[in-house]
């Protein structure tokens, strides 16, 4: 068994995003149709034991970092049990969570005690009425309270991801960036990725990251920053003079970062997807349930991992919504 996982282009694959559910308590305008989707039958969804078993087989091949995603992962009961199982795998050095943050005030501490290292919170507005409009739900979500809960629990660094949409929330860029002046948080502005059946979200809503940074610079001089000490992602980070936190931009549309991609994705029903916007995936679930070695399937998947995504050509591998693969 070799010690590293390298794809056909020499990229070292060390990071696995694990979707634990396709369901979500939000219906964000850029992520899921308002009516939701046809949910996976429970029998098709990997159990926590199966997820841990698959990671346990893949970790010795070079995986060292995992991120738990959804849908919305915190709506799956007793998520801390999965965190503890993943923490027990010797090769896994870093366990993170992507969440909309709604449940963090009540569960952040138990997730940390189970072994979760850090958290990314998705928050596209700081205004209650706008949060409800973007998420199409009224759950009394306060992003700042959730970030404070995560910070107090020791889930560090706290990152807040903002999908910037022209005419929808781009007037809050300064408000989000201002949070870094007094909080040690990392606010990451993500370029909108128009996908699938989101007919109300188009290319006209994309705000280039260069424009975002120009607006942030109105708060003070921006200097490049190496970023938080732990991270797997493609963000470029900056600090406003005097800030205790940082601002980052993630640029899938204007400056693709495919050449350094180090990740693959495991869907809730056990399919290994090698590119978020590709159409190549390999089912690991059935082989694992049959007691077969999944290493050959993993190797074959890496051999077919594409050089770059095809979102700019609107080829999205049959995705109806980002929620299907955990973003």
Write the layout of secondary structure elements.
Elements: E1 15-19, H1 48-58, E2 65-69, H2 79-87, E3 94-99, H3 104-114, E4 118-122, H4 128-135, H5 143-153, E5 158-164, H6 173-182, E6 186-191, H7 209-216, E7 222-225, E8 236-240, E9 246-250, E10 263-266, E11 271-273, E12 281-283, H8 285-289, H9 295-303
Verbal overview:
There is one protein chain. Strand 2, helix 2 and strand 3 form a beta-alpha-beta unit. It contains nine helices and twelve strands. The longest helix has 11 residues, at 48-58. The protein is of the alpha/beta class and 327 residues long. The model is unreliable at 312-318 (pLDDT under 50). Helix 1 (48-58) packs parallel to helix 2 (79-87), helix 2 packs parallel to helix 3 (104-114) and helix 3 packs parallel to helix 5 (143-153). Strands 7-8-9-6-5-4-3-2-1-10-11-12 form a twelve-stranded mixed beta sheet. The protein is 25% helix and 18% strand. The chain has one domain (15-324): Aldolase class I (TIM Barrel).
Summary, kept brief:
The protein is α/β, with parallel strands linked by helices and 327 residues long. The protein has helices spanning 48-58, 79-87, 104-114, 128-135, 143-153, 173-182, 209-216, 285-289, 295-303, and strands at 15-19, 65-69, 94-99, 118-122, 158-164, 186-191, 222-225, 236-240, 246-250, 263-266, 271-273, 281-283. It has a 12-stranded mixed sheet with strand order 7-8-9-6-5-4-3-2-1-10-11-12.
């Amino acid at each position: 068994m070799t010690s590293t996982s390298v794809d056909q282009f020499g990229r070292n694959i060390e990071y696995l995003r694990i979707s634990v559910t396709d369901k979500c308590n939000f219906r964000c305008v850029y992520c899921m149709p308002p009516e939701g989707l046809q949910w996976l039958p429970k029998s098709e969804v990997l159990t926590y034991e199966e997820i841990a078993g698959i990671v346990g087989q893949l970790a010795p091949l070079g995986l060292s970092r995992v991120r738990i995603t959804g849908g919305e992962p915190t709506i799956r009961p007793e998520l801390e049990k999965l965190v503890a199982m993943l923490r027990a795998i010797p090769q896994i050095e870093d366990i993170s969570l992507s969440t909309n943050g709604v449940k963090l005030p009540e569960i952040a501490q138990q997730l940390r005690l189970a072994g979760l290292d850090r958290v990314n919170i998705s928050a596209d507005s700081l205004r209650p009425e706008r949060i409800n409009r973007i998420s199409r739900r009224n759950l009394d979500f306060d992003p700042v309270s959730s970030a404070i809960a995560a910070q107090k629990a020791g889930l560090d660094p706290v990152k807040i991801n903002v999908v910037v949409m022209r005419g929808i929330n781009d007037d809050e860029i300064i408000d989000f960036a201002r949070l870094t002046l007094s909080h040690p948080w990392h606010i990451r502005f993500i370029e909108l990725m128009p996908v699938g059946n989101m007919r109300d979200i188009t290319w006209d809503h994309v705000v280039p990251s260069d424009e975002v940074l120009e607006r942030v610079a109105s708060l003070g001089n921006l200097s490049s920053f190496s970023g938080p000490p732990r991270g797997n992602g493609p963000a470029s980070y900056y600090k406003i003079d005097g800030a205790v936190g940082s601002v980052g931009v993630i640029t899938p549309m204007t400056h693709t970062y495919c050449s350094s991609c180090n990740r693959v994705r495991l869907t809730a029903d056990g399919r290994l997807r090698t590119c978020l916007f590709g159409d190549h995936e390999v089912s690991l679930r059935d082989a694992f349930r049959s007691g077969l070695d999944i290493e050959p399937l993993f190797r074959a998947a890496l051999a077919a991992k594409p050089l770059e995504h095809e979102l700019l050509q609107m080829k999205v591998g049959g995705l109806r919504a980002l929620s299907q693969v955990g973003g």
